[in-house]
Amino acid sequence: MKFKKNKFIPLSIPNLIGNEKKYLKNCIKTSYVSTVGEYVNKFEKKLSKFLNVRYAVSCNSGTSALHLALRVAGVEPKDEVIVPTMSFIATANAVRYLDASPVFIDCDEFFNLDYDKTKSFLLKETFSKNGKTFNKKTNRKISALIVVHVFGNAANIKEILALCKKKKIKVIEDAAGALGTKYLYGKLKNRYAGTVGDLGCISFNGNKIITSGGGGVIITNSKELAKKSFHLSTQASVDKLNYEHDDIGFNYRLTNLQASVGLAQLEKIKTFLGIKKKIKNFYSSRFKNLKNFTFNNQPPYADNNCWMLSINCKKHLILKKEYIINFLYSKGIETRSIWKPLHLQKPYKKYQRYNISNSERIFNNTILVPSSTNLKKSDLLKVISTLKKISKN
Hints:
The protein is of the alpha/beta class and 393 residues long. It has 2 domains: 20-266, 3-Layer(aba) Sandwich (Aspartate Aminotransferase, domain 2), CATH 3.40.640.10; 269-392, Aspartate Aminotransferase, domain 1. 35% of the residues lie in helices and 18% in strands. The chain has helices spanning 20-30, 38-51, 62-72, 90-97, 115-124, 158-166, 223-233, 256-266, 269-286, 321-330, 359-365, 377-392, and strands spanning 55-59, 80-84, 101-105, 126-129, 132-135, 142-148, 170-174, 182-183, 199-203, 216-220, 237-239, 244-245, 293-295, 302-303, 309-313, 336-337, 353-354, 366-369.
């Protein structure tokens, strides 16, 4: 099915309204198009300044950033990593890249790692020995916990951070879509998502709040972890003249071309965050009149970036989720489902899961709605009016 470009309403696409062309032309003019160039350094410095974090190490994807973060955090083969079941599969894949095993925990009402269940698992299902934490069921060492700030919603992790510190478990934040989300209260006040754990990872994929066409970054306040991240991301090179390497590294650095786009996008981050909040408020006010759908709000303890916005189908429509998505597409509106929980995915059915009861229900009744920063009011009104037609059926 084809639509005229101005008739189709996409879910989440880039808004290239800044210096992207200017910076790209400069890359081509200077021939610095690979992993060396001024824009890589500028992008990292501007990003670390915006997030008020000491170090930013750019990578060629959010997935490679997550893989690298787990590696430098000390995750070893046969270790276990606590992983939220409600996340994109890359979160669990990065664990398996290291031959470690995920232990899946349920999600809360904001799609994030359930605080109470995580605390329960750590207190009841683990034991400490020689300064390390082990799973009672498997006797394997638990070396890290991944917190995902799903769709830009800040996870409730203040107490989890303290508990993990006590148990010597590294906390890695998968803040792939959470750039700009900031905590509002308590010890985490004014801290950005991705900057409160040992390491944070952000994605700059094409559908994110800003993009570099592809790419990601590791952020940390630890000089040691930042240095190791950079070292391993450049093939663990120690002598460029003689091509000498001291570890098994990776070709994970961001290119200057990508960084030039990322820098131009980052210069517009405050504009994009403002637009996202306006879109959220628009939906929130108008969904009150839809009898078959409710709008999902964000957690109140944070100023969330509203990257992806979602709705719930009322109970009698749950089995029609696929029909609803297809119906909207037939009207020129792109929507999609939330991810199928990881513990139900074919590669991960055999791994341990703990007290999971919310994620399958949320998967069955949640739909993501258009939230691109270049949407017009008429586009948003069309989304609402089309959903009203379903509400009348």
